[in-house]
Write a structure and sequence with these properties.
Layout lengths: L1 H4 L3 H15 L6 E3 L4 E3 L6 H6 L7 H15 L1 E8 L5 E7 L4 E5 L6 E6 L5 E5 L3 E5 L11 H4 L1 H19 L6 E4 L6 H15 L16 E4 L9 H15 L15 H17 L6
Antiparallel strand pairs: 1-2, 3-4, 3-8, 5-6, 6-7, 9-10
Helix pairs in contact: 2-4, 6-8
Length: 281
């Protein structure tokens, strides 16, 4: 889910990086000329896109929110507030996880069914919704990037949980307590409970254990080094960076970074946002 994916540090950092970088660029309305273009500040959409799409948000905040939605859920929705002439005067962001898009069987146009926090569903016609779909657009919606990156995110979460459990247990693997005699289920339960109360967790790490009646201990499982814990975490960052089309150093992974390749990667990161049609004609 979106909430679970947001707990993955590399994924959240990547989404923030893309959203903040794109939102920091000015959203300018241009007039096309015979040769070149010029700004059109008198156009009715100029203040909406460049300054503030609504009284509660600046243009940067609105874009940052929309790009975050686009790179997480695969779609960017905003409701158009229209004046008496049917012209857009304000834009209000809508959460993609509350939106269902369907085709009207009569008109063939898209219908946007939005679920309000109260549980009420509002049906919006396509002319009232600014919809920017992401990759994989099938005619209705874009594909959720979280769904496309599910395996990478699951792997990152599994590695993180392994590390948390390992260090919560004092960075020690599990143990098997051997007893020379056959114990009843009750005795086994009492022995297990007593051991965990006295030796489990960081606060009890490195405490001395005294064993009676010829008992002994064997360690089982793998250490963090044996399972290549750090390498696994680094690989998770690389996989998430690949899914977001980012260079790993943008997610603070400098394991393979050099001055020259970072410089080229930074140029490669900046160029698409400036060239890829960031203005509206």
């Amino acid at each position: 889910t979106h909430d679970v994916a947001s707990t993955v540090g590399a994924f959240t950092a990547g989404i923030r990086l893309i959203a903040e970088d794109i939102a920091s660029l000015p959203f300018i309305t241009y007039r096309r000329l015979a040769k070149g273009k010029e700004r059109a500040p008198e156009h009715r959409l100029y203040p909406v896109l460049h300054d503030a799409p609504n009284p509660e948000m600046t243009s940067m905040v609105w874009q940052e929110t929309g790009i975050g939605h686009l790179y997480s859920w695969g779609n960017w929705y905003s409701e158009k507030e229209l004046d008496a002439q049917g012209r857009t005067v304000r834009l209000w962001p809508l959460r993609p996880d509350r939106m269902n898009v369907e085709l009207d069987r009569v008109t063939g146009r898209r219908l946007y069914k939005y679920n309000l926090p109260s549980g009420t569903q509002v049906v919006l016609p396509s002319r009232n919704v600014l919809h920017i779909p992401g990759y994989g657009y099938d005619g209705l919606v874009g594909y959720s990037r979280i769904r496309l990156m599910r395996r990478q995110l699951e792997a990152a979460i599994a590695v993180e949980e392994f590390g948390l459990q390992t260090f919560a247990n004092g960075a020690q693997p599990g143990v098997v307590i051997k007893h020379p005699q056959r114990l009843s289920d009750t005795a086994k339960g009492n022995l297990k409970m007593s051991w965990e109360e006295n030796h489990r967790g960081l606060s009890n790490a490195q405490r001395t254990a005294i064993l009676d009646e010829g008992m002994s201990i064997d360690q089982v499982g793998f250490s963090a080094e044996d399972t290549q814990f750090l390498d696994s975490r680094r690989f998770s960052v690389e996989e998430i960076a690949r899914g977001l089309r980012l260079s790993p150093h943008k997610l603070s992974d400098f394991s393979r970074a050099t001055f020259s390749n970072i410089e080229e990667a930074n140029i490669d990161h900046v160029v698409p946002w400036h060239v890829g049609g960031r203005s509206i004609t």
